[in-house]
Amino acid sequence: MSHRLPKLSFLFPEVEDFLRNSLFPREEHYLNDNFEGFHKLLDTLSTPPLFTVVRVNTLKTTVHEARQQLQKILEEGGKEGEQCHYKVTEHHMVKDILLIHGSGPKDDLVPASKEIIVDSHCGAAILRGADIYAPGVMAAHPGIERGDLVSAFADLEGKCRKGLTKPYDGQKVFVGNGTAVLARKEIFCSQQNVSGVAVCMTSPLFSCPSLSGVLPHLLFLQNLPSVVVGHVLDPHPSEIILDMCASPGGKTTHLASLMGDKGAVVAFDKSEPKVAKLKANCEKLGIQCVKSFMYDGIKALDAEKHYNRGNISLPPSPPYPCGTFDRILLDAPCSALGQRPQFVVRMNLKELQSYPRLQKKLFTTAVGLLKDGGVLVYSTCTIPPQENEEQVAWALKSFPCLKLARQTPHLGGPGLPNCGLSEDECQLVQRFDPTSLYNAQTDQTDTYNLDTIGFFIAKFVKKCL
Q1: Residue of 381, 401, 419, 426 marked active site
Q2: With a threshold of 0.90, does the pTM exceed it?
Q3: CB 458 within 8 A of CB 392
Q4: Distance CA 308, CA 292 (A)
Q5: CA nearest to 102, candidates 66, 130, 138, 142
């Protein structure tokens, strides 16, 4: 039985047209390779990467020790009836991460008779190794009791009514089988809000390890390009660093770890719950050098003042004077079209086209806050050139003080041509393209560098004029 996942779809057709025209110029639409390339991209974005990446908290342990502990846990703590087939390996270039190779899809998996419908976010999480938590359940077979074998389907249209008892006849996709931890009545009829595990996924469509609660003080689940960003910024222990859009704290805590928890990492986010999550992650990992604020990064510059480290200390809170920070990470709010897996893009064209304007505002503030000689890294988890290469071209034109710099490590491919950058500049940025795996040589062993989310990184140095 084939369980092929549907390719990424769009609630608004004009968004699909915009993306196609951005990645494959209109005059090239009739070339068969480009037509196939776009649909290959949509296929890839709906599937999960087969590599689970965990960053090791090197403040607390070594990568070698963490690998041994994790391998032992996976071998001893496999789900009932399941033999551990996961091997934990170290990356040959990024020295603070571990890789776990998964597999899938399972073509021989037969859905159980009792069905549970989950929302699309929950369905995507299942494909990357998660169990089903009660808040993600939209509907369930009326006869489900604890211990029952159930099949999980993700609601693709977002139209399933919460608590539905009849079979759901909307668009859905099978994501695997599991064992009910909660009966249906406990999920929907409890007097209290239930937030725990509702279904333990014993046979998901893709085999990826569930690492929830595994060595929480030592390991942090993170996509490979997101870890690369921290190394590209390359913060030093004596420096003052700014993470302008920090929640949930994966990159923030990585920067602090690279600095040995010395110096200072200032972290912003506009949402109080997100700042709370950031602080919780810092506490969990034992990090103390992060100073987090609920603040709009666009408003973080006090242009009336200049920072002189020899005379004044870092202000206790934002806004900050010009030239305050040695290095700045701008992991900008973006359309997130590089995330995997995703089933349906629900944003409209107006929303999609709003991101470049916001990114420019944040970037302008970042340049003012950066000291002369400082480093600014701009990154997104999306694929349209309007938010990536074209933003870099705009920045180089708008700020003559900025110059692109080489990145280490450089694991992604070059930037897209004909988007405002020269050929040499395209080689200095790095674009992680999920479809590059299709074009790799069959004997290539480092597929973990290719089978990633879509991502973009640019590194700038600010020069004195």
Answers
A1: 381
A2: yes
A3: yes
A4: 22
A5: 130
